[in-house]
Amino acid sequence: MFADFAEFMETVTLWSTMRGWTAMESAGLRFSDAVEVISRGRPHPVTGGSITRWVRFDDAAVLEEPYLTGSSGRPPRIHVVVADPELPARSGFVESDPHAKFSTIGRGFPELPPRWA
Predict the structure, then answer these.
(1) Could you tell me which residues come within 8 angstroms of residue 104 by beta carbon, excluding any fewer than 6 positions away?
(2) How confident is the model at residue 7, as a pLDDT?
(3) 6, 11, 34, 82: which has the fewest Cβ within 10 Å?
(4) pTM above 0.85, yes or no
(5) Is residue 34 exposed (0-12), middle (13-18) or buried (19+ Cβ within 10 Å)?
(6) Which three-class secondary structure state does DSSP give residue 7?
C-alpha cells in the first residue's frame, strides 16, 4: 500500500491528526470529485507518495489509497474525512455511493500509551 517507510509514516501521522472525525470510505467516488466538493473553493495542494495521495484542510481531508491486494483492476479507496459529520450528507456523497462505509477515526481502538503521546 505504500512505496516506502516514509510514505507509511506520513499517512499514519495524517490519520492521527484526525482522531474523532467522521470518515466515509468509498470505492465509487473519484478523488478529484471529492477534493472539489471538500475544498469549497479553497486552494487544494495535493500531497502524498507515489501510491497514496491526500489533500488536507483544517476541517476536512480526502485520501486515496490502493486496496491491500494492490489489484490493478480494482479502483482505489477514497476516504473523505471531516470534522463536521453532516458534511458528507449535505455534499451528496452519500447518494453517489450507497455502499459507502462510515466510521469515526480512533473509535474502537485502544488509546496510545501515555509515553507515546
Answers:
(1) 20, 21, 22, 23
(2) 80
(3) 6
(4) no
(5) buried
(6) helix
